[in-house]
Design a protein that fits this description.
It is a single chain. This protein is of the alpha/beta class. The protein is built from 15 helices and 15 strands. The chain has helices at about 15-20, 40-50, 70-80, 90-100, 115-130, 140-150, 155-160, 175-195, 205-215, 235-240, 285-295, 330-345, 355-365, 415-420, 420-435, and strands spanning about 30-35, 60-65, 85-90, 110, 200, 220-225, 245-255, 275-280, 320-325, 350-355, 370, 385-390, 400-405, 440-450, 465.
């Protein structure tokens, strides 16, 4: 049996450049960058199964990782259950398992929500440092900065002061960084006093540190990373150490979909790569949907993405995305529910939202539907309605995607604007919307009240515009 026969019969078979990636040598580091819909997730599965196949020279136990828990369930649905040498999980599950193996993960050791302790830390620093404008910033700013510091392994003042912060139009001055670092350090002290050894963002640094001194044989010969653009530098560095030195690391990513604020290129992650492979063919979206996504990626607030791959125009034709203006929020909700019910019988239909608060406004009125969330245990590919956030839909695809609340009052999110400023908010939020748009195979409907979001391109001919 060849690697592409029975086990992967349910997946599209590799074509063109994809075949080159599948059969890359089973040793060393490989980077594959692709546009949305170019088959990166499919090829990550193919590559992982190939490397786990005992009949393939150089094969061995293989770990296929992604960032999104719902996507893990989807990958498990697509992959062959009898590939016993293949493990599929999200990064944090891998990290927790490894740290527990090393006796570094106690019961209830991870803090879920940083913000309450960050608020306390800010007030304590104010008492010592006195008035300072940077200390009056919203807690969301400090939460974002703490995540960036931990994700980059910056745990000393000197490291933080010298690090370049990508994606921020007005960099913090050294005196401001010193105060921010004081908040971060005070937060860690408060967290330790609460008997929480980690938060989710600094797990990767703990894994990295532990692997540096771990002399035991590694569990995995090969590691395949899907949606790699959303892994922090410390995550990737830890995975490089976790793979067998005689094995391989294969990184699949699309920097147009980088939604967690790192704005970092794979070049800074410790990968030693001879060549970079690019997938430019969009096999998922119709030409009309792809045209809208491309127009978004060419807007000013999107152009700071590293390593963007510009797609070739797909040939499959379909209707233009619909951009629907609604009279008020109640009318918009009713419109989305009608569309979902009209399409659900013969199609997979995803209703996607900026966040869970927006989702709760509609989800209870969708009838029988599958929620995309972290505890999703079984993937049902049958026609029906799915609902979740843009984050939860990462890596997935549906026949139709409905995206309500795309008005200027909601996108960019006002809280993100308040915390990070309008330029950074536009940059980040546009990537979220891009993710939502590119989940649609055949049809896309966006709705809004008031004025459409400035994130959406205003180019003539991109949409069929109407009023509900």
């Amino acid at each position: 049996m060849t690697p592409l026969q029975a086990p992967l019969a349910g997946l599209p078979q590799p074509v063109g450049r994809q075949k080159d990636v599948l059969y890359l040598p089973p040793k060393g580091h490989n980077v594959v960058l692709g546009t949305a819909g170019s088959g990166k997730t499919t090829m990550a599965i193919h590559r992982a199964v190939h490397l786990a196949d005992p009949d393939v020279p150089g094969s061995g136990r293989t770990l296929l990782l992604t960032f999104n828990k719902a996507l893990v369930t989807y990958l498990r649905h697509l992959s062959p259950l009898r590939a016993t040498s293949l493990t599929i999980e999200h990064y944090h599950l891998f990290a927790r398992g490894y740290l527990a193996h090393r006796n570094k993960m106690g019961w209830n050791a991870i803090l879920d929500d940083r913000e309450p302790l960050l608020r306390q830390a800010i007030e304590l620093v104010k008492q010592v440092a006195g008035p300072a404008a940077v200390l009056e910033r919203p807690v969301g700013f400090f939460n974002d900065e703490a995540g960036w510091m931990a994700g980059n392994g910056l745990f000393s003042l000197s490291e933080y002061l010298s690090a370049e912060r990508h994606g921020r139009s007005a960099p913090l001055q050294p005196v401001q960084r010193r105060l921010v670092y004081q908040v971060f350090e005070t937060y860690r002290e408060l967290r330790a006093a609460a008997h929480r050894r980690y938060d989710w963002d600094d797990l990767a640094a703990a894994v990295h540190e532990e692997l540096e001194v771990d002399t035991d044989p590694g569990r995995y010969r090969h590691i395949v990373i899907d949606e790699g653009q959303d892994f922090s530098p410390e995550m990737i560095r830890s995975l490089v150490l976790a793979a067998d030195p005689d094995g391989s690391v294969t990184f699949f990513g699309d920097y147009a979909q980088q939604i967690y604020g790192q704005r970092m290129s794979w070049k800074s992650f410790g990968l030693k790569v001879r060549d970079v492979y690019e997938f430019k063919e969009n096999y998922r979206n119709t030409a009309e949907i792809a045209r809208l996504a491309l127009a978004m990626s060419q807007m000013a607030h999107f152009r700071d993405s590293p390593d963007l791959v510009e797609p070739n125009n797909p040939t499959a034709a379909g209707p233009r995305p619909a951009l629907i203006q609604c009279a008020d929020r109640r009318s918009e909700i009713d419109f989305i529910i009608r569309q979902a019910n009209n399409l659900r019988r013969n199609n997979t239909v995803a209703v996607l939202f900026r966040d869970r608060a927006d989702e709760r406004v509609i989800s209870g009125q969708l009838g029988t539907a599958t929620r995309l969330h972290r505890d999703l245990a079984v993937w049902n590919p049958a026609p029906g309605v799915f609902h979740g956030t843009y984050h939860a839909a990462k890596g997935l695809e549906f026949d139709y995607v409905l995206m309500p609340f795309c008005g200027a009052d909601r996108l960019p999110d006002p809280d993100v604007v308040k915390s990070l400023g309008i330029d950074e908010a536009l940059s980040r939020e546009s990537r979220l919307v891009y993710v939502g748009i590119t989940r649609a195979r055949s049809g896309l409907i966006l709705s809004y009240t008031g004025e459409p979001s400035p994130i959406l391109p205003a180019t003539r001919g991109l949409y069929d515009r109407s009023q509900s």
